[in-house]
Amino acid sequence: MAAKEHTGQVLSFRRGKQVVHPLVTVVKLDGDVDRNTLIGAKVVWKRADGLQIRGWVQARHGNGRAVIVRWRKGFPPEAFGSRVTIRKAAAAK
């Protein structure tokens, strides 16, 4: 099974008027991607020193190319604007 990879850019934490969710971010996808097929896909953010934070796509966000990503650990705000890799496993035959 080959995995299909996509990339995206981390925009911000998911937030409301008075609440900020540090485990959930909004990620803008690169290229034309069907966002419904990415729900449940694994997401990896890598820092230059080798640190990785893993998460998964929870839902679509808005009418554009954005998705909501839930992280296992709190996401560092210094990483806003950085790139993430989204990997969707191919369907089994």
Describe the protein's architecture and organization:
The chain has 93 residues and is mostly beta strands. The protein has one helix spanning 35-38; strands at residues 3-15, 20-29, 42-46, 52-61, 66-71, 83-89. The chain has a 6-stranded antiparallel β-barrel with strand order 1-2-5-4-3-6. The longest helix is centred in the middle third of the chain and has 4 residues, at 35-38. The chain is globular and about 45 Å long. The model has no long low-confidence stretch (mean pLDDT 91).
Could you write a compact summary of the structure shown?
With 93 residues, the protein is mainly β.
Tell me the layout of helices and strands.
Elements: E1 3-15, E2 20-29, H1 35-38, E3 42-46, E4 52-61, E5 66-71, E6 83-89
Antiparallel strand pairs: 1-2, 1-6, 2-5, 3-4, 3-6, 4-5
List keywords for this structure.
93 residues; mainly beta; Thrombin, subunit H; six-stranded antiparallel β-barrel
Estimate the helix proportion, in percent. under 10%
The amount of beta strand, in percent, is over 45%
Order of helices and strands: EEHEEEE
Task: Profile the largest sheet.
Answer: 6 strands, antiparallel, barrel
* CATH class division: Mainly Beta
Q: Please, what is the CATH homologous superfamily? A: translation elongation factor selb, chain A, domain 4
Overall radius of gyration: 13 Å
Number of helices, counting only DSSP H or I runs of 4 residues or more: 1
Strand order of the largest sheet: 1-2-5-4-3-6
Molecular shape: globular
Q: Calculate the mean pLDDT score and round it.
A: 91
The span between the termini is: 9 Å
Q: Are there runs of 5+ residues with pLDDT below 50, and where? A: none
CATH topology, by name, is Thrombin, subunit H
